[in-house]
Specification:
With 585 residues, the chain is of the alpha/beta class. Among the domains are: 33-89 and 566-583, Roll (Urease, subunit C, domain 1), CATH 2.30.40; 102-229, Diaminopimelate Epimerase, Chain A, domain 1. It contains 17 helices and 25 strands. It has an 8-stranded parallel β-sheet with strand order 8-15-16-17-18-19-20-21. A hairpin with a 6-residue loop joins strand 13 (203-207) and strand 14. Helix 3 (103-111) crosses helix 7 (235-251), helix 7 (235-251) packs across helix 8 and helix 10 runs parallel beside helix 11 (381-398). The longest helix has 18 residues, at 381-398. It is globular, with a radius of gyration of 26 Å.
Length: 585
């Protein structure tokens, strides 16, 4: 009789055999245990699990966490093929999540004419000139990345600055936040935008107050007036953008993200969803992802059947797409965010809602019957209130609002802050934004001193029982979670630590901030039983840091570096040899 080799025996059988041999030899017999592929030991393990927040070792098998505990506890999971890695006392945590990212926009933003490295208007002009020179012909030049703060007082750039580069080709540049275009005279001419062109619904053309002529800024829906001039990305470019983001995020310790608003055609097809499917099928999607379909404000409830079709197609492909992204308003410096009271020195202008409150409530309630999660972009305090009211209506009708989430929350009226906990609404903040920097100066000028006391109220929402989930809104801001954690606990600009903190009473603890960047993101994505903490049965999505952020001074947290990122038990960034402490069984 020829016995199969040990490698073909079930692990449970091997463990049982080892028990019998140990018993025959007179050794103490432990209860049966599955052997592990990998044991990480001699670590400071922060689990984000309330019942067992700290441990020193983790056993992993077949991409799943088998056990968490002491180094001694893990010995029972060692087999002849188990790899044991001594982490040398380093911090081991759950991998981070990001509850708000734009992978395709971000990937394309950096692969076309990127202005992100520019620090001045003159820098932008030099970058644009290089892009024009590098792209012969007479076609449009498109790019992303200019900062609103370089165009005070309202973040509106002028066409003359781009005309100085060229008037022969259309130049179209999107702001880093994605809510504005900066165009030159040629782009305005080709698009037929003149003094007499009416503003579209939910958008406006920036005009000279004296002449009424377009000055070169296009806000919100007015961006569509030049949309046909921008070269459409190919399917390959979209896929490459997703792969680029996966690698970039893995390098930052992120293995779980929420794509906050993908395209959807009237027939239920989506080029972005198809790209995710292609990348996933090739085994290149090294993250758990949740997708939100973008709600078209120009249309109504007739788009819901297409959302259902696309969601079912995604599920068949093994992709979670049960969220819908609504844009309730714009941004504060350009005064397109919806405010309860008027902007400072702006008459009765309060900023427009981009979707009627009754339409928002009806859409969320109708979608909720099919289990869709509502995700609302709301920056002004009125938009936040309208979103909360819509969630309340859906909850009253359906019994639940399906983990509703509001992104950004630049200003939240004190009366609305307790409603997050009452309604079970996830407050989705961008942690690095809660500090003082030039864009914040424009914000404060626009809303005045009283409302400037209600900016990004993290503590104000957490204290009454609300939940926070962090997302960087990349590429609008850095996706580095460690920078985000540092700002969350200090409210100080991570790039300029000498600046004063922004509303320091709104700072939260490091434990709260870590939960907001791990388990709470997983909850927001409907994946809290899969990932987000270190517990038996969960996916082995982990990160090893080069230093213990719990022992660092708060303003030093961002100096920590990711050494290794694991996704489903395998390194997707770094390797064990980089630790210099790998040990054989």
């Amino acid at each position: 009789m020829i016995l199969p080799s040990r490698n073909f025996l079930p692990k449970a059988a091997v463990a049982l055999g080892a028990m019998l041999l140990a018993s025959c030899a007179g050794q103490a017999v432990q209860s049966p245990a599955e052997t592990a592929d990998l044991i990480l030991t001699n670590a400071r393990v922060y689990t984000v699990e309330t019942a067992q927040p700290w441990a020193e070792a983790v056993a992993i098998d077949n991409g799943k966490i088998v056990a968490v505990g002491s180094a001694k506890d893990m010995l029972r999971y060692r087999g002849t093929d188990t790899r044991t890695v001594d982490l040398g006392g380093r911090l081991l945590m759950p991998a981070f999540g990001d509850a708000h990212v734009h992978p395709v926009f971000g990937g394309m933003a950096y692969t076309r004419c990127s202005l992100h490295d520019g620090k001045t208007v003159e820098d932008y002009q030099k970058i644009v000139a290089r892009c024009v020179a590098a792209s012969p012909g007479d076609g449009p030049i498109y790019g992303v990345g200019w900062q609103d703060a370089l165009f005070p007082p309202k973040g509106v750039p002028r066409k003359e600055l781009l005309d100085a580069v060229t008037t022969k080709r259309a130049l179209i540049f999107e702001s880093v936040g994605g809510h504005s275009y900066w165009v030159n005279s040629k782009a305005l001419q080709i698009a037929g935008i003149t003094k007499g062109t009416p503003d579209p619904a939910n958008g406006h053309i920036d005009r000279d107050p004296a002449t009424g002529e377009p000055v070169g800024g296009l806000q919100e829906a007015a961006m569509t007036l030049v949309g046909d001039l921008i070269p459409k990305p190919t399917a390959e470019e979209v896929q490459k953008s997703i792969v680029y983001v996966a690698h970039h995020f893995n390098s930052l310790g992120i293995t779980n993200w929420h794509d906050a608003g993908i395209d959807l055609a009237a027939d239920g097809t989506s080029e972005t969803l198809a790209a995710y499917h292609a990348v996933k099928d090739r085994g290149e999607l090294s993250a758990h992802v949740s997708l939100a379909f973008k709600w078209e404000n120009e249309r109504g409830l007739e788009q819901i059947p297409a959302i259902r079709v696309a969601s079912e197609r995604a599920a068949a492909w093994g992709i979670s797409a049960k969220s819908v992204k609504f844009y309730a308003d714009g941004v504060i410096p350009q005064q397109t965010a919806a405010m309860i009271a008027p902007y400072e020195h702006a008459g009765d202008h309060r900023g427009p809602l981009q979707i009627k409150p009754e339409t928002l409530a009806q859409a969320i309630t109708t979608l909720g019957k099919d289990g869709f999660q509502p995700h609302v972009h709301a920056i002004g305090d009125r938009a936040v209130r309208v979103a909360l009211d819509a969630f309340a209506a859906a909850k009253n009708s359906n019994g639940t609002a399906n983990r509703p989430m509001i992104s950004h929350l630049n200003v939240v009226d004190p009366a609305d802050q307790p409603r997050f906990g009452e309604l079970g609404v996830i407050a989705q903040f961008q942690p690095t934004w809660s500090s003082n920097y030039p864009y914040m100066d424009l914000t404060k000028q626009a809303i005045g001193p009283v409302r400037s006391g209600y900016i990004y109220p993290s503590h104000g929402i957490l204290a009454p029982g609300g939940m926070i989930a962090y997302g960087a809104d990349w590429p609008v801001a850095t996706a580095n979670p460690l920078f985000g954690l540092q700002v969350a606990v200090t409210r100080v600009n991570y790039e300029e630590p000498a600046t004063p903190p922004l509303l320091p009473k709104e700072a939260i603890t490091l434990e709260q901030a870590i939960r907001a960047h791990t388990l709470n993101v997983a909850y927001a994505n409907g994946m809290e039983t899969l990932t987000g903490s270190i517990a038996p049965g969960k996916s082995a999505d982990l990160v090893v840091l080069d230093r213990n952020i719990f022992t660092l001074a708060p303003l030093e947290i961002g100096k920590a570096k990711v050494m290794v990122t694991l996704f489903e038990g395998r390194p997707v960034f770094g390797n064990w040899s980089s630790l210099g402490a790998a040990k054989a069984p």
